[in-house]
Structures are given as C-alpha cells and as structure tokens.
C-alpha cells in the first residue's frame, strides 16, 4: 500500500491531469469555462468568489513554498525552524480559513438559490466535496500538530514531493508521516486528477493574449446624434 499511495498514485494523478487537459482542449474547448452562474445571482457571488480565490491562491503559494523550498534556503535567510513554524501556522491557517469561508458561501449560494441549484451538476457536487475536504483536512492536520515546532514536514513530505520529479520516489519517507497529513495528501492527489474534468479546469487558462492585443478605443458620441436616424439610400461610409 505504501508503494501504491506514494509511488504510483502521484503519477496516476498526473497522467489523468495531463490527459484530461489534452482531451478538454481538443474536444471540449467551449466547455473550458467556469460555467458562471452570475446571471442567476450576483450579490453573494461578488463577495464569495474573491474571498475563495484569494484564499486558495495563498494556500497554493504556501504549499509550493513548504514543499519545494529546501530548509537550507530558509536557514540561509535567517528564518529558523521555530519562526518558520509560526509563519507557516498563522499564515496557513489564515489562508485556509479564507478559502473555507469563500467555498462555504459558494456552497450556501448554490443550495439556497433555486436557479443556481438547478444549474449545479453531480460533477460540481463532487468537485466541491473533494475541494472542501482537501482544504479542511490540511487545516486540521496543521492545527493538530501545533505544540513546539509542530510537525516538521520539510524532512519527510517535502523531500518525498521533490523526489517525484526524479522518477525515483522515496516512498519510505511517508511511512512515519501522521495520518492526517497522509489523508490530506491523498485527497489532494485525487483533486489534482479531477481538475481537468470539472469547472476547476479554468485555473489553467491565462489571458496572455490580453498583453498583446491592441487597445480598445472608446469614443463619446454627440448627444445630438443619439436616437433614431433617418433612412438613407445606398451604403454608408465606414466611420460615419
């Protein structure tokens, strides 16, 4: 089971991620969207959506730093183990609470607003469940190991994560990891595998073309020209 969870499942999740992105891009480009329900309700959405997105962005950045920045780098910056633990604890908890509050409001909105609820698919419900579970499990795992310097995942989970990129995963590192962290990691891998098959696929879209597109020029109109215009025979010249 250790080899499967920490030596096979990560690559299976990655294969499903890449395969899903390729499939969606080739055969479901018009479905590559958030399927926004703003047309049904926007007041609560305008609050919940930014809260969730900012929270999940901070959570993602925290995971990238915690897993892929070696301890020697933070030591070189003068950030000791205890200071790093406190920074990780407080900032991670704040980011997780922000994400949980956002997703809770989004779920409440979908459940209480009839048109939005009718537009919610089984796929959406599964996505919300796995996403919510992943965030909450991460917070619970962190808060359950707060005494002293907490659980030092930078000696186990972090090097295991980096070993995946060498195609020689060190599965033994995960054997002594607390159960809550292990469950959080497994649910996280399931979430990664599901991403391209849900509305979360939109996170892989970046409006890069906006940086290169020409400016959109807006011109005011003469108030005297507003209203119906008399019909004119023939074609009109462009720009008139």
UniProtKB/TrEMBL annotation:
Residues 3-221 form the NarG-like domain. InterPro entries: Heme-iron_electron_transfer, NarG-like_domain, NarG-like_sf, Nitrate_red_gam. The keyword Isomerase does not apply. It is found in: Cell membrane. It is a multi-pass membrane protein. It comes from the Bacteria. Keywords: Cell membrane, Electron transport, Heme, Iron, Membrane, Metal-binding, Nitrate assimilation, Oxidoreductase, Transmembrane, Transmembrane helix, Transport. This is Nitrate reductase.
């Amino acid at each position: 089971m250790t080899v499967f969870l920490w030596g096979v499942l990560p690559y299976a999740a990655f294969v499903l991620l890449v395969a899903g992105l390729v499939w969606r891009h080739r055969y479901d480009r018009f479905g590559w969207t958030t399927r926004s329900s703003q047309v049904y309700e926007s007041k609560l959405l305008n609050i919940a959506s930014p809260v969730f997105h900012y929270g999940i962005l901070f959570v993602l950045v925290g995971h990238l730093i915690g897993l892929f920045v070696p301890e020697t780098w933070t030591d070189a910056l003068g950030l000791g183990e205890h200071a790093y633990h406190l920074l990780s604890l407080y900032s991670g908890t704040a980011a997780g609470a922000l994400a949980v509050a956002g997703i809770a409001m989004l779920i409440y909105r979908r459940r209480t607003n009839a048109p939005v609820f009718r537009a919610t698919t089984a796929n959406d419900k599964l996505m919300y469940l796995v996403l919510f579970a992943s965030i909450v499990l991460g917070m619970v795992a962190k808060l359950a190991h707060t005494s002293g310097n907490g659980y030092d995942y930078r000696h186990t989970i972090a090097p295991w994560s980096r070993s995946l990129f060498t195609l020689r995963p060190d599965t033994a590192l995960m054997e002594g990891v607390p159960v809550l962290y292990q469950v959080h990691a497994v649910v996280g891998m399931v979430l990664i595998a599901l991403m391209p098959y849900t509305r979360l696929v939109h996170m892989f879209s970046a409006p890069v073309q906006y940086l290169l597109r020409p400016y959109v020029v807006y011109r005011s109109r003469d108030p005297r020209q507003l209203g119906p215009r008399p019909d004119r025979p023939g074609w009109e010249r462009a720009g008139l």
